[in-house]
Amino acid sequence: MSSNPLLQLHEQGQSVWLDQISRSLITSGELKRLIDQDGLRGMTSNPTIFQKAIGNGQDYADHVKEMVRKGTSVCQLYEALVVQDIGAAADVFRPLYDAENGSDGFVSLEVSPLLANDAEATIKEAKDLWQRLNRPNVMIKVPGTTAGIPAFEELIASGLNINVTLIFAVEVYERVAEAYLRGLERRAQAGQPIDRIASVASFFVSRIDTAVDKQLEQKLQQASDPGQKQRIESLMGKAAIANAKLAYESFRRIFSGERWNRLKAKGAKVQRPLWASTSTKNPKYRDTLYVEELLGRDTVNTVPLNTLEAFRDHGVVKPTLEAGLQEAHKIFAGLKEVGIDMKAVTQKLTEDGVASFAESFNQLIDVIQKRRDELSKAA
Predict the structure, then answer these.
(1) What is the CATH number of the domain that holds 90?
(2) Can you give the pTM of this predicted structure?
(3) Is there a contact between 61 and 348 (Cβ–Cβ < 8 Å)?
(4) Residue positions annotated with a catalytic role
(5) How far is CA 291 from CA 38, 213, 251, 265, 325, in A?
(6) How many helices (H) and strands (E) in the chain?
(7) Dihedral of CA 185/189/194/198: which sign?
(8) Is residue 140 part of a domain?
């Protein structure tokens, strides 16, 4: 077994993806180094990541200047910048994708978060981005919203690779997994191949603890009974991992049995759970907590660079995802007993996530507009 904990994760059946992108990461050769030395097997992006990359760096100045000379609109400029980065990253991962027969080596690009509640517009933009990128190892990200899930099913039936993002609740995850099966079945019934379609379900983790711990702290302050205080304290920092383990339990159930075996016989790949938002937000918790506690086969963990470096340095590798399932159920029962409404928590987190990505997208467009205006005046 390798001495690098990141490589050990792959040996245990989990892929590590990088939740970060910038042009310099690609052009400097750092991305290829992470693939070759640390076993990095994919990459995710979102509007917040691009907003930071384009807003804070000088990597894009020449490209912006060139597009301004051509009279490119702000929206066209945005698409040109992100499509170039995603395409370039996908090209770096392409040898891995080919070596793995299409099982890994993916790079994700999100449709506009402004379309989160519009299924038809989501489908149209996803197909447009897919055609523009024209690479088999790209995944288009769509949100796990009420409108996003039927859009996802249609896109799978159309043969696209899709990353369903902003999933917080086990019930929503199950609807996403079922939509994946229906999309594959529709495509197979139409006589189309399903053996090269890939999908992940991005299940968000640390934000759950941030939200639940805040409510538990409030209840702890209000409690007077020592026994009640002890029960509340015992639940701190436990909700997120328990939630993910219950989702993985659903994954193992859904991707087994006759229905799945019929699709598997046609070459279908499981839709892997992808653990997202796995950087530790609370300084009281280990910086590798949401990697170490969610290690299981047929999963992906997408991490920011600082978490990747921390795990490389001192991560502990052991199969943890299927351990303590009974305890996970008890934690959810305990949360209910102390008055935590997990359905309300996850619904609020979904709404906040859509709003946050929309805000970052608007800020990104503002940054590009500002740069475009500055260069137009200087021309």
Answers:
(1) 3.20.20.70
(2) 0.95
(3) no
(4) 141
(5) 15, 19, 18, 32, 17
(6) 17, 8
(7) negative
(8) yes
